[in-house]
Structures are given as structure tokens and as C-alpha cells.
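FYI - complex with nicotinamide-adenine-dinucleotide, inputs then prediction.
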Amino acid sequence: MSAPLHILVVGAGAIARYHLHELLVQPGVRMTLADADPARARALAAKLGADFPIVDSLAAGLVLRPDAALICTPPYLHAPMAREVLEAGVHAIVEKPPAGSLAELDALIALAKARGRLLLPIVQVRVTSGSYLLRALADAGLTGRFLHGTVETHWRRDMEYYSAPWRGRYATEIGGPWAGLAIHGLDLVLPHLPAIRSVQAHGATLNHPIEVEDCGAALIRCAGGAWFVYTVTTHAHAEQTTGRLVFEHLEVRYATEPYGYAQMPWTVLCADPEQQKRVDACRARIVEPAVPADHEQAFHRQAQQWCEILRGGDARGHDMASYRPTFELLTAIYAASKTGAAVTLPIATEHPQYQRLAP
Ligand SMILES: NC(=O)c1ccc[n+]([C@@H]2O[C@H](COP(=O)([O-])OP(=O)(O)OC[C@H]3O[C@@H](n4cnc5c(N)ncnc54)[C@H](O)[C@@H]3O)[C@@H](O)[C@H]2O)c1
């Protein structure tokens, strides 16, 4: 029998629907839904065929003493809400981007530690079959040194997308598609690359009447000297997400499917036929947790992982501290884009961008 868990989901919008769909099938979990517009919460509950208690604010939800709060509100509310949750002695799970700056993120990590509460990011691509594959190849010692990479998020967003009241402005969205769309590509590959040393980047707003960038390109240098190229556009005519990671002994590729790209089918190619046999054998040995029909691998496994961690499981490698390198790289990308100069990591606390993610 699973210990009971009460999760307060704050913000009943588009992404909350995915998380609720998965939490509903986790044993022993009950949920309360909070939205400043309770009619939206009621409509979402009806769509999911669920009978959640509904409240109209985070504060009203915290009165019910949940075990954790899952923050799915617009980005500018993430850090203040996470602070309120942690100060109430409740575990916090926070949508991306989790804060408005590295300074805010570090303060939240310190607060969670001081209060003995969990602070978890939302990084669903790290539990997909693509992540399993990259880990298995590395654990088997089959990759060798990282030599080159490209990670491309070529999606299409129209003005209906930007009509959400919080999108399009740095004050409310915190960052444009680097922080909101292409971030998943970084989440996916970053744990499998050497430490990042420096970044050159350019972002621009070319085709939408918005303040945040709508496209960008970054050249990222890793320890050991290899570069990878990281691009995002919201102007694609046929959406595609691609990644190509070239290591000394093999090359991993994913391509074409715009949103499910973190899952199979991925290709692993080796110039040496003997190495290819070893790689294929390694792939054949990978065992992954099953996912029920009608459930998305990424969101399902992530909900399962949250429940395990909230019930006392090991949070190492899944908490906000482990997510910080992604957020630091994102900060460096915006800093480099702003000045046109290369930015070296780590970002010191005195760096002007430490206090603000973007622009
Ligand atoms: N993990 C992912 O793949 C993924 C995908 C899409 C969006 N997101 C993130 O999820 C967050 C929400 O995005 P969305 O598309 O669901 O937005 P949305 O606009 O559809 O929903 C936001 C909800 O928050 C509610 N809200 C606003 N202020 C509130 C407050 N003070 N208290 C309570 N509720 C409040 C709104 O009424 C709305 O229902 C964003 O940060 C976005 O970046 C993540």
C-alpha cells in the first residue's frame, strides 16, 4: 500500500492538465486544484472526469496542509510561490523556468535546505527512453570523449500562442523560447556532456510583435574543447526537433518528431562495425519502466518519480540543485546575447546577469 499523498496543483492551465492526468493514476495520491480563476479549475476537473476540491489561491490551498505544491502558474509567479510554499513547510515542485534569476534560484535552494523541504524542478525529458539510452551508453563506457553536437528546436508559434496574458514580455514570461521551448533540449543533453566553459549567443525578435526573443542561436564550448550548437526558432514551416551528439566512439541522433523527440526511435551509429555490435547489444539490455496506454512516457514517469521522492525516495540528481547547471547555462546564453561577447562559466554572484535571467 502506498502512503497517502496530498498534492496541491496551483494553476489549472494547459500544462496542469498533463500533470493531473498522470497524478490521477498514481496510487494513494489525492489532489486539490487552485486557480485564481476557479471556473478554469472546474472546467479542467470536468475535462479530466475528476472531482478535485477547488480553491482560488495558493494561500487557500496551503491552509489544507498538502504534502506538496505543484506550481503550474505563469513564470513570474514561480519563485514567489515556491517561497510561500517552502515557508509554509510544504515541498515544492516548480514548472520552468523555476525562477527569474540565478540569485532567486539560489535563494530558493537555500530556503528549501534550511526548512528541510524538497524543491524539485520539472524536467520530464530526463526520464524518457532517450535519457535512458544516453545513460546506458555512458555507464557501459561506450561513448568516449564528447566531440561535437547540434541541438535544434525548430517549432512554430503564432499570435494565438502569444495571446496568453503572460507571454511575450520578459516581466511575466521571464524568457522567450530559449527559456520556454528549447530548454527541454538542454535538459535532455546537458547531463551527458562535459561541464560548460563558455557561450557565444545571439537572440532576436524577427517575426512576432513581442518583447521576448522569438529565435536564437548559441555556440557552447565544453571542457575538453568540444563545441555544440544550440538553436531555436518559432518560425518553422514544418516543425522539427533534432539532436546529434558526436562522441569519440559513437554518434547519437534523434530527429523529426517535434514534441516526442526525447523518446525512441533514436539512432546510434558507429564508424567501427565491432563497436556497433557492442552498442547494439547494450541497447538490447536496457530495461525501462512500463507506461500504461494513453499515457505519455515523459509525464507519466515524472509523476511516478515525484511520488517516490515525496514518499522518502532519493532526490539526488532530481532536485533543484541538480537542475541549476541548466539554469546557469541559460543565464549565460542571455548574457552573451545581450553584449555579443563570449561569457565564461561559472556565472559569479557579482555578474550583472546573476540578478536577472533575461534579457
Ligand atoms: N513542462 C512543460 O513541458 C511545459 C509545457 C508548457 C508550459 N509549461 C510551463 O507551465 C507554466 C504554465 O503554462 P500554461 O501553458 O499551463 O499556462 P496557462 O496560461 O494555460 O495557465 C496558467 C494558469 O495559472 C492561473 N493563474 C494565474 N495567476 C494565478 C495565481 N496568482 N494563483 C493561482 N492561479 C493563477 C491562470 O488562471 C491559468 O489557469 C509556464 O511556466 C510554462 O512555462 C511547461
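The mean pLDDT is 97. Residues 10-16, 34-37, 40, 57-58, 72-75, 77, 95-96, 122, 124, 164, 180 surround nicotinamide-adenine-dinucleotide (CB under 6 Å).
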